[in-house]
Amino acid sequence: MQTPTHPSVHYNINHTCGLPNGHKETALTLPIDISSFHFGIEHEFAVLDKHDQFLDFSNTSFEDFAQVIEHLPITESDAQTLRTGDLGIKLKRWYIEGFERFTEMGDYLLTLPKGFEIRTPICTSLNQAVDTLIRDFSLWAKAARPYGYQATWTALNPFQSGFVPHPPLNAWELKDRSSPEEQTAHIHMITYGPDISFSHSDLNTDQTIDIAQKLTYYSPYIVPFSYTSPFHVGKLWGGYSRRTYYRTGDRPAALVFTSDSTKITPSFPTLTDTARIPAEDGRIEFKAFDCPPDLELYRSLGALLIGLALDDTLTGRLTVPDSELHKHSATHAFDAPDIHDSAAKVLAAARAALPLDWQKNLNRLDDMLAAKRTPAHSIIQKYKENRSISSAIQ
Fold it and tell me: What does pTM read for this prediction?
């Protein structure tokens, strides 16, 4: 398997097999009870209007989208596991993703919208998380229908080349955007993708960091299973995930939240971050998948992540994503022999680490790999049939 290189990469944590000596061992104490994992999914997506126009910060206001959110319920118990945010925009499971602007004095002005996000509370199983998301997506669709909004399945704004704040950020805003993710928020404004999170009470902080480093290393080989962004500035880009090409490297592939400040090591992009509420402590988020072509795919992608977490044979670890390898993967996907063969090894390792009742979730990924097809292939085919980007991403 090809070994990615990156000038700023270093191994903070060692696994018991194959990494440099002199580091702490962090192998899982096996067998770990797979039924005790907890899961959450954050699904962000773009929308079209009734005229099939793609809606974003250039043609839509926060208030336009807020009409939909007003019709959706608040679940009081969600506050235990979901952050509401300083501005109260995230009071519900559904909220508007965007870019917040402030005055020179730090007073909130407005939010430029990019789309919607639906997030599940912490669930006691992967299936419960997916079922909850499907049900809440249906509620969103019902609330959005009177306004003519329809969800898309694209991981990149197919018409915008980028996002530039206008007017430029003022002194207060520049100072406030101090973290790596805040400094790259312009990337966030034209990309759409999920956060799939999981945690386990038996994992210590070193082990969660090790898993995140492992997911970061193998990310280029597993993200093609989700690719849905073959368009760029109104035409076919030429590859399968313009989002991955544009995003991963400057933005993280995986992230760990911890309450232990001694375990937080600065990196760009961030790998370890401070838990903001108790429920975040020990949470591992995988952030590099494209917006999937349908919500059922989360069962397969989630099972793949857990299989990788449980596997004890794959030795690769990175603190920051290999940007060039992600670009290679985004451009060629499974057509590239190194991506295809490495994905096969990773998928086999994940399958071997999972119990039988979980392994069936990987069958869809096996079929995709055997055919060397990503979801983007179907999007491209639909576009070639009718020459409409809006129709291709519905």
Answer: 0.91
